[in-house]
Design a protein that fits this description.
zinc ion binding, mainly alpha, 4% strand, 2 strands, Herpes Virus-1, Znf_FYVE_PHD, rod-shaped, metal-binding, 2 domains, zinc
Amino acid sequence: MMANPYGIFPTMPTNSSTTLLCAQCKKFFTYMDSVVLCDGACKRWYHSKCAKLPDNKYRLIQDRDDNRSLGLKCLWACKDCRDRPDTGRDPEFESFVRERLGKLSQVLEYLVSKIQDIENRQKNQEVEMNKIGNQEFISQEVEEHFMMFQ
């Protein structure tokens, strides 16, 4: 597990009620520890190693401000909070997903119509090219025919 590249407790509040103990192993956090806050009901801090959080997920959670600007919501909940039956769904997130799906559906419909327009134009151009090709062939035949009589 990598050391905390974000400085000491990057998102940990500094008020006096904050505990500096990992909720899992009950050991104090150090400057070199990677720590993560449970976004579930308990709001407890964990060593990312104790939380069994891979480095890539840890970085994703720590970069949550950047991810929010991209429209992503990066949350982590400890096992206790995940196992609680009352955690329920996140209506804000579900609304966000429905809104994005609606927009994606509109974009997809637009793109499909544009593809159909392009395909139709291509077919029309092929027909026109065939007509031109036939006219050129006929012109060449007529020209050759006249040349024979001269």
